[in-house]
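Comment thread on ticket #2218

A.B. wrote:
> Attaching the input chain for the structure job we discussed in standup.
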Amino acid sequence: MVRRSIEFEEKIPIAFESQEYYKKIIERIIKVNRDIIILSELLDEQMCGYDLIKEIFSRSDVFLSQGTVYPVLYSLEEEGLLQAEFSKGDMRAKKYSLTPKGREVAHSRIDEFAKALEQVLVIIQS
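C.D. wrote:
> Ran it. Output below, let me know if you need it in another format.
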């Protein structure tokens, strides 16, 4: 399966008055679907919660708080999709990585999410 990363194009000209609304839409999509975003980020490398927050912010300009990221991480870990291990020399920072089941579920959820977004486009553009 091919990973579909969520990229944000800076080249798309957005009228000043609609730029704020555009950012709100992106923020809403990311916050509501943070589990898929987190799974997507963990496909490439293991990360601690703080690194996930920084990476998502740097790619989307959307800030997810620790209070929204860590419950998702714990939930995904309980589902058996993630495993956590402490970093060497730092017993405070857990690094999360996908389990084999988590990798399979991540690909599936990302594909389903992309198809759902395509369907939404069909609905609003018709």
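A.B. wrote:
> Thanks. Noting for the ticket: The mean pLDDT is 88.
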